[in-house]
Amino acid sequence: MIIRSCASSPAASLLRIARRRPQPVAGERCEMCAEPVGPEHSHVVNLDSRALMCACRPCYLLFSDQRAHLHYRAVPDRYLHFGGLTLDERTWDELQIPVGLAFLFRNSLQERTIAFYPGPAGATESELPLDAWDTIVEANPELAVLLPDVEALLVRLSDGPEGSCHLVPIDTCYELVGRLRTLWRGFDGGREAHQAIDVFFAQVRERSRPAAMAGPS
Predict the structure, then answer these.
(1) Pair 153, 143: CB distance under 8 Å
(2) Closest by alpha carbon to 101, among 172, 173, 171?
(3) pLDDT at 2
(4) Which of the residues in the chain have pLDDT under 70?
(5) Residue 169: beta bridge partners?
C-alpha cells in the first residue's frame, strides 16, 4: 500500500498558495502609486476624462504647477468669497440655468465655461448657451482668479438677497453632488436636501476668505 504525504496533497498545495497570497489592504490608496492615503487626502483631475483621482502628497505635488501642460492637474485647497458679486434672478436667467444652485468651471481642453447643477441623478451638465457668462466676468474682473479645471464658482441664489458666490475646489462640488444624490426628492430636492445644502454652505462660508485678499494665483 502506498501512503502519500499530506505535504504533497492538493489540499496542502492550496493551503500554501493561500498563505502566500497578499492580504487585501484596508483603506484608500493613491490611484497613481498605490501608497496608502488617509481619509483627508488630496485629488488630481484627469483633464481628458474629467475623473478625480485620489493622490498621496508626493504624487499631488508633481501636478501642482497650474501652468504646466500635463494630463493631470492638482486640485488646490482654496476657498474664496465674492462679497460684492451680484447674481440676481435676472442675471441667472441670462445664464439659462434651470435651478438656483450650480457650479461653473472653465474646461481648458474645450475652452469654454461649463455649468453643472445637482439633481436626483447626480450632476447634470447644462447644454444651454453660456455666452452671458463672459459678460458677468467682464463686469466682475475678480472672477479671473478662478483656475481652469480644478476650481469652480459655486453659486446659490436663495442664500441672501443677492445669493452667494464662492470659489471652491472642484472636488468640493462633486462632494456636494454626491451628498444630494442620496437625499434628493422631487423637482426641488425636498426638505432633507435643502437642509444638507444649508449645512454645506455654512461649512464653505467658514472656510472662505474674501476674494479681494486672494492676490494673484
Answers:
(1) yes
(2) 173
(3) 46
(4) 1-26, 84-88, 127-129, 159-163, 213-217
(5) 151
